[in-house]
UniProtKB/TrEMBL annotation:
Residues 572-599 form a coiled coil. Pfam families: AllG (PF06545), CoA_binding (PF02629), Ligase_CoA (PF00549). InterPro entries: AllG-like, CoA-bd, OXTCase_su_AllG_h-dom, SUCC_ACL_C, Succinyl-CoA_synth-like. One of its GO terms (biological process) is tricarboxylic acid cycle. Gene3D superfamilies: conserved protein of unknown function from Enterococcus faecalis V583, Enterococcus faecalis V583 domain, NAD(P)-binding Rossmann-like Domain, Succinyl-CoA synthetase domains, v583 domain like. One of its GO terms (molecular function) is succinate-CoA ligase (ADP-forming) activity. One of its GO terms (cellular component) is succinate-CoA ligase complex (ADP-forming). Keywords: Coiled coil. This is Acyl-CoA synthetase FdrA. Residues 191-286 form the CoA-binding domain.
Length: 1003
């Protein structure tokens, strides 16, 4: 039985999740499990292991998928706490390691480490190329531990790096040393005068550790990635690194490590090597050179490579043969039917073993199929780091599980006489691989003994005495367990062959002249020269543990807690990347929009009946509604109820039944408020006879309108339409509206709303759920004016009392203010700033400056929050209303920190929650509005300019404070809470914006 939990927006490193999966798989009540991020590649893994559930299919790449196969229906009661404990422990360790030097964006990372010159990547390959391109464009060398980068992407990145004078190390660059700083999966090697360039894996580790144990030292080990010497890549990184080492004064010897390259590429590399001034030792693994050529000493094995390099570094004469005599085993030779099996965690070590065994037995050379390096006549050599073994699992250098299972499998096979192993030490590797393997080795020996046969284990420990693990102790414990331990992989293979009675030798080599042409060695770029002559400063993007070796040995690093942009939506990532080419232009256009928002001059100048300022009311029966366009039969129940109430109020029908028939007949036209410079709360229903505030934005000379707040109780905006509701609307039309209008006419310029808002935000309003300060400040402005009017005293009393009783009265004024501000801001401007957010109970719609009146819509969400007694979430109506115009200008939910008291009312908690919300909203806006400063936010201004690019990139959508209407017309408000704008409308807006730039969004 499959059980699934999706942990939303909880990005974790894949290696940590692999280790966590192993931990959960050890539970007695778990048959199998997978814990991984919701990327397409990971979903393919789940599909291939029959663990892909419907819930997992819907996960985003930033969601953590927890899929467990168990017969225990309560298994998650055990699994979920264990996952929490594991991740909390990681967080605690990481906090100690990184010492608060963490970043969540490139800008933050560059700001924290302004002298950064390297970006170290260990993120999923399917998202890596654009991020690496960004690093290169920021003039950072790239070290890509990340693999699975498409070949065409690697070619493009390496060409870009070369053109910029940088190095692109990788992809699939497992280990490196830069200025004696160990990087990624690497050993601690003594500093010295040998500079190495290699594919970067256990080949470099084997050579560098042998150099160290021979008393030599390495200054640089530059990884190129396994495909660098392919025909398509053309050895770009290797040749740039060779040029760098040639011009690096402390490097006396250049060492090249490579798997067999394309001949044309090999010729180019050798030509360059023959042209440098420094001695060179090179191994093209798989080749068996008969001689050295010119100044390039050609090695056959990794041990020979290390020995030649040390002799060259010590200016000693090169020997004709470096293959030592090794002692013969003091055991019986294995019978004919028993063979050697190699179980390697290191790919290059496996290749070397396969090569040597094949040469000794004439087995036809190495192969590359399903993880096998050699598979002939019973002789198997397996690279357990191959993709077939590591998909969804940790690398065997980290986790011994796969190798233990293979040991158990081969121990059962009567043909198995010898099992060859590598034990790789160093940063990133298992903390005690020898200790982890010994129980399996002992069990295998007992299995063979019970079957009446011998089973020998031969191992090499790849490491140094400075590594975090104890090299000598690892060797000692393996030997105590009956393992034959040799100083190198070559010696281990030769010893294993001697157990079969086969002695492997090598022919002497002499130096012969190089007959090819040489070239002029190019000058080294300034950036590569700087990299090779200083300690690196590294932005670490991915696995946090990679910081440790850097900082332990004097380098600097900052942790970039990366997660896929745009929730992993590759289309959106592609659009965001393409738009980066226009950053300066977009910034200039956005500045015009935000300047208009910041400098707006909104004044309340009048209250008039809607049909006097909105001519559409005078053409036919017309109602305005909240949100993007919608027809009566598509509206939710409370919005339909508001329409019924408006029809009764206007006298279009005498009763509810006739009003519904009228509205269903198509005789009434429905127009979005936003289409006619208006806004409306909740249902937003506005009819021609209703009074509206007139807000004039004197900066841009435009006006906006909103109906007056109805107060509390049964109200039209929540879908009520009883006689009580109609009577109040009549009073608002006949008394409240005219009184406010007359009062405003006695002023010279109306009410300066910027001043009133600025004052009220310092008093704890956020202008969506909390308007009490602004409503009182408004009353303070209006009461003296009303008192002086020549109208009946009872009307003055009624109006002033109504204003005093209506804490939310200013909300409608604020809505019209927001409308006036954004309509002015989007006049004659372009850019990515959101200029409208609204909802109609079905669709959430946004507009941006660039696309003017075009709606970008997605399905609305239902608010979450606190419900009044007797109601629950089941009673809540989907989100509706134009009041989210407040969030568009940076108040409301965007300014939650200004009104921490609101957080309790909407069910969000306390002050810290309010602060967290505003800090989060800050991430999706362009700047701050100094006109409206917030004391509880260290006097920062409200958020200014919601940027659709930031919304899409971060996956953070605006949070809106809102009342919750009943989903049944006439019931009214049933609670208050918050609701998130749906991401989809911002993605659609971004797509439309990109099309304006001629970007092919469907590429």
């Amino acid at each position: 039985m499959l059980q699934t939990v999706i942990s939303k927006n909880n990005y974790q490193d894949s290696i940590n999740l692999m280790l966590l999966t192993n931990k959960i798989n050890d539970f007695d009540n778990v048959s199998s499990s997978q814990i991984m991020m919701g990327t397409d590649a990971n979903k393919d893994i789940l599909q291939n292991t029959d663990l892909l559930t419907d819930e997992a299919k819907e996960a985003s790449p930033n969601d953590m998928m927890i899929v467990v196969d168990s017969e225990d229906e309560n298994v998650m009661d055990d699994v979920l706490p264990a996952i929490d404990d594991f991740l909390n422990d990681l967080a605690s360790e990481d906090s100690g390691e990184t010492q608060n030097t963490t970043a969540t964006t490139w800008d933050e990372a560059m700001e924290q480490l302004p002298d950064a010159n390297v970006a170290l990547f260990s993120i999923p390959g399917e998202y890596a190329a654009p991020e690496m391109e960004k690093a290169l464009k920021n003039n950072l060398h790239v070290f890509s531990f990340t693999d699975n980068v498409p070949l065409e992407g690697e070619v493009r990145l390496k060409n870009l790096a070369h053109d910029k004078g940088l190095m692109m190390m990788g992809a699939d660059c497992g280990t490196g040393i830069i200025s004696s700083i160990p990087i990624a999966f690497t050993n601690v090697v003594s500093p010295g005068n040998i500079g190495i360039v290699g594919a970067s894996g256990t080949g470099i580790q084997e050579v560098t550790t042998i150099i160290d144990r021979l008393g030599g030292g390495v200054v640089h080990a530059i990884g190129t990635g396994g495909r660098d010497l392919s025909e398509k890549v053309g050895a770009t990184t290797m040749m740039d690194a060779i040029v760098g080492l040639e011009n690096h004064e402390p490097t006396d010897v250049i060492c090249i490590i490579s798997k067999p390259p394309e001949k044309s590429v090999r010729d180019q590399v050798v030509q360059l090597l023959q042209s440098v001034s420094k001695p060179v030792v090179a191994i093209f693994l798989g080749e068996k050179p008969e001689n050295h050529e010119g100044q390039v000493y050609l090695a056959h094995t990794l041990e020979e490579t290390a020995k030649i390099a040390v002799d060259l570094a010590n200016e000693e004469t090169i020997k004709p043969n470096y293959m030592d005599t090794i002692e013969k085993p003091n055991v019986n030779v294995l019978p004919e039917n028993q063979v050697v099996k190699g179980l390697y965690s290191g790919g290059t070590l496996a290749n070397e073993a396969g090569m040597l065994i094949s040469e000794a037995l004439d087995l036809g050379g190495v192969v590359k199929e399903e993880g096998y390096i050699l598979k002939a006549k019973g002789y198997d050599v397996i690279d357990l780091g191959d993709d077939i073994y590591t998909q969804g699992r940790p690398h065997p250098m980290i986790d011994p599980d796969v190798r233990i299972k293979k040991i158990q499998e081969y121990a059962q096979d009567p043909q198995t006489g010898v099992i060859l192993l590598d034990v790789v030490l160093g940063y990133g590797a298992h903390e005690d691989m020898a200790g982890a393997l010994i129980p399996a080795i002992n069990e295998a020996q007992e299995t063979a003994k019970a079957d009446g046969r011998d089973l020998h284990f031969v191992a090499t420990v790849c490491g140094t005495r400075q590594d975090p693990q104890d090299y000598d102790d690892s060797v000692k414990r393996l030997e105590e367990a009956g393992v034959f331990v040799k100083e190198s992989n070559e010696k281990a293979v030769r010893f294993a062959l001697q157990l079969k009675g086969i002695t492997l030798t090598d022919e002497d080599k002499e130096v012969v002249p190089y007959k090819g042409e040489t070239v002029d060695v190019p000058a080294v770029s300034d950036k590569i020269d700087e990299l090779l002559n200083t300690k690196p400063s590294i932005i670490n993007i991915g696995l946090q543990s990679f910081n440790q070796s850097i900082t332990d040995f004097g380098g600097k690093s900052v942790q970039f807690n990366w997660r896929p942009r745009a929730n992993g939506n590759k289309k959106m990532i592609r659009i965001l990347d393409a738009l980066e080419e226009y950053d300066d232009q977009i910034a200039e256009e956005n500045q015009k929009v935000t300047d208009k928002i910041q400098n707006a001059q909104p004044f309340l100048v009048d209250v008039v009946t809607a049909n006097t300022v909105i001519p559409e009311f005078n053409e036919q029966k017309t109602l305005l509604h909240a949100g993007p366009p919608i027809q009566y039969n598509e509206m939710t129940s409370p919005m339909q109820g508001s329409c019924v109430g408006a029809a009764l109020y206007e006298g279009w029908a005498d009763n509810e039944e006739d009003a519904i028939k009228l509205l269903e007949s198509g005789e009434v036209r429905f127009i979005p408020c936003h289409q006619v410079q208006a806004v409306g709360p909740m249902g937003g229903i506005t009819s021609g006879s209703m009074p509206v505030t007139v807000i004039q934005n004197r900066l841009t000379n435009n006006q906006a309108y909103c109906i007056l707040n109805e107060g509390i109780g049964k109200v039209l905006r929540f879908g009520a339409y009883s006689q009580e509701v109609i009577d109040r609307l009549d009073w608002i039309r006949d008394t409240l509206g005219p009184t406010l209008s007359k009062a405003l006419q006695t002023t010279k310029e109306g009410v300066n709303l910027s001043v009133l808002i600025a004052r009220s935000i310092t008093m704890g309003d956020e202008f969506h759920q909390r308007n009490i300060a602004a409503s009182m400040n408004f009353l303070k402005e209006m009461a003296p004016l009303i008192v002086d009017l020549d109208i009946p005293q009872n009307e003055k009393q009624e109006v002033i009392q109504f204003l005093a009783d209506t804490d939310q009265f200013f909300l409608n004024i604020m809505m019209a203010t927001g409308k006036a501000i954004v309509d002015g801001a989007r006049k004659d401007t372009k850019g990515t700033v959101v200029t409208t957010m609204t909802r109609n109970g079905r669709d959430f719609g946004v507009r941006i400056a660039q696309t003017k009146d075009e709606w970008h819509i997605a399905p609305v969400n239902t608010p979450k929050g606190l419900y009044f007694t007797g109601f629950s979430e089941e009673d809540g109506n989907p989100d509706f209303g134009d009041s989210s115009i407040t969030e568009t200008i940076g108040v409301g939910g965007m300014a939650m920190v200004a009104a921490p008291g609101v957080t309790r009312f909407v069910g969000a908690g306390g002050f810290q929650d309010a602060l967290d919300v505003s800090n989060e909203m800050e991430k999706i806006t362009l700047s701050h509005n100094p006109t409206f400063t917030i004391p509880t936010w260290d006097f920062k201004g409200t958020c200014l300019g919601i940027d659709i690019r930031k919304v899409v990139e971060t996956g953070i959508t605006p949070l809106i404070n809102t009342g919750i209407a009943s989903n049944e017309a006439g019931v009214g408000q049933v609670g208050a809470g918050t609701v998130r704008a749906p991401l989809g409308c911002f993605e659609k807006a971004l797509e439309a914006y990109a099309k304006d730039f001629g970007i092919d969004v469907d590429e």
